């Protein structure tokens, strides 16, 4: 598929854009490749990605170390077909015609690797389902 206008785009949003949304974006890039456009952002972005989230992803061979938390913009939401929120509540702008999902996931902030692995694995299962629906 070379026509980029038909490529679905997904935006992952959490509060700090440091853990859950970054892991989800990493999985979607890994699983869908260039078939899906991937964005992530936070309503109150952290200074850096959660190092435990990075470690959990590296265990599966997915490197998210180059990513940086980004601020959520109205433009990012408008440019996305699917907006997946992870605990950002009312901070996420809403536009008619977009597909919205709210994934109830524990926040990995301040958690050890043993607590982050189940969150990571839950995200992976959700991403695999999402990819099967989008591509």
What do you see in this structure?
There is one protein chain. The protein has 135 residues and is of the alpha/beta class. 36% of the residues lie in helices and 16% in strands. It contains four helices and four strands. A four-stranded parallel β-sheet has the order 2-1-3-4, covered by helices on one side. α1 (20-32) packs across α4. The longest helix is centred in the C-terminal third of the chain and has 22 residues, at 113-134. The model has no long low-confidence stretch (mean pLDDT 92). This is Arsenate reductase ArsC. Keywords: Arsenical resistance. It holds the Pfam family LMWPc.
Summarize this structure as a short list of keywords or feature phrases.
16% strand, alpha/beta, 135 residues, 4 helices
